[in-house]
Amino acid sequence: MLxxxxxxxxxxxxxxxxxxxxxxxxxxxxxxxxxxPAQVRDCLAQQQSLRSRADEAERKQAALTASKAExxxxxxxxxxxxxxxxxxxxxxxxxxxxxAATRDKMIDQxxxxxxxxxxxxxxxxxxxxxxxxxxxxxxxDENDEIMxxxxx
Length: 152
Known about the structure:
Blueprint: H1 2-17, H2 37-84, H3 90-134, H4 142-150
Helix pairs in contact: 2-3
């Protein structure tokens, strides 16, 4: 009887050593649906808008950089002129003050332009991120794109 009891224990202990496979089969990821022709059209329009806005931002950045360089150049010129300025001549002082006032106006314009430019750049970044989320790496029918580019 002891032998029978040990035989009964042995098979059950082996079964307990095996891990149970309670995992369910992995659910297949749903394949993303294709973008509709209207969505493809919107994505292409957004892409074109982003390109033109990026080009405009580059032009504005170049203008701001040139303006800053001109401000710096004029500042250096004014420093040099100040050392040799004939302060007894009212005309010389008036000319110097006119140049300084011109530089001050340029500085004011520059300081007004920089925050506006930075806001435009931030808006462009946000729109690029939205475009990437909605349009990039999305499936679409290439025939829809071809028809849209042809203007149909």
